[in-house]
Amino acid sequence: MLLSDFDYELPEDLIAQTPIEPRDASRLMVLDPVEKTIEHRRFFELGNYLAPGDTLIFNDTRVIPARLIGRKEPTGARVEVLLLRRVEGDTWETLVKPGKKALRGTTISFGDELSCEVTGHTDFGGRLVMFRYQGIFEEILDRLGETPLPPYIHEKLENRERYQTVYSRESGSAAAPTAGLHFTPEQMEKLKEAGVNLGFLTLHVGLGTFRPVKAERIEEHVMHSEYYSISEETAKLIRDTKAAGKRVVAVGTTSIRTLESAAAGKNMIYGKSGETSIFIYPGYDFKIVDAVVTNFHLPKSTLIMLISAFAGREFTLEAYREAVKEKYRFFSFGDAMFISRPGGKETK
Hints:
CATH superfamily of the largest domain: QueA-like
Number of domains: 2
Strand content: 25-35%
Number of strands: 19
CATH topology of the largest domain: QueA-like
Helix content: 10-25%
């Protein structure tokens, strides 16, 4: 398939710059890719599309203040370092801007209490750096680091917590699992009271979120690996849901990728952790996921390819055109979709 097969026209003024209040007041486009129907709702109505015994699966990763602004020694040139993931100890995989002069042995200072040395290059154009500091690294990072908002967001975020889900708890992501930003504690409690199960897993979002697809034939694209973990408790909840004939509803593409990475076969999953570089595009046979809550994604991105695999490419693009026409808000702080395939039917 060609990269151009996943393109669409998006007016820039539809890219959401600030989060909506309250969280669940965002719009919700409801898709049935089998019947090819589109409904326009609000996110607080999500429960109307869930049944007792269905299971929502959330990614409980937490965004770290991963963006550091420092100075290259001894020139004093400004350098931005984006932390992607901890490799081991105080060595991190990062993106450095400007990167061309960040050679092995380069020292970058972030003030008196923190500095790092470039120790190597990665296969994806990043840098390995080793941090030096006195004290507790996480506390220093919390003081000096900034929330790494996507480049298409130009407004300043007044409250850091608005780029965190209300259920975030496992620190380690360079970006938020944004489909989860719509949920409120009150809505989650109401869903539980209505008999909907809530399960949690972890995928720490890394370079894959920031790296565009450059291969014209998408099959040639290589995903960057990310750490994930799913407990046996959550895996059993999923197995029980499947056995009861109910749906597993993945909240966000990160939950989809984790569930499909951990799948041991059709409708079968066990507790597991490790690295995943799974790349899901049309033609993929889903093993666990029956329905999806997701945001609207960038043109030509791996995320729109994933949703196209679930809902069908032509219908996905039709829904995106409808969203543009109806002036939905797009991307991280934008509106949401709910997509369900009745009876697990495949889409074309």
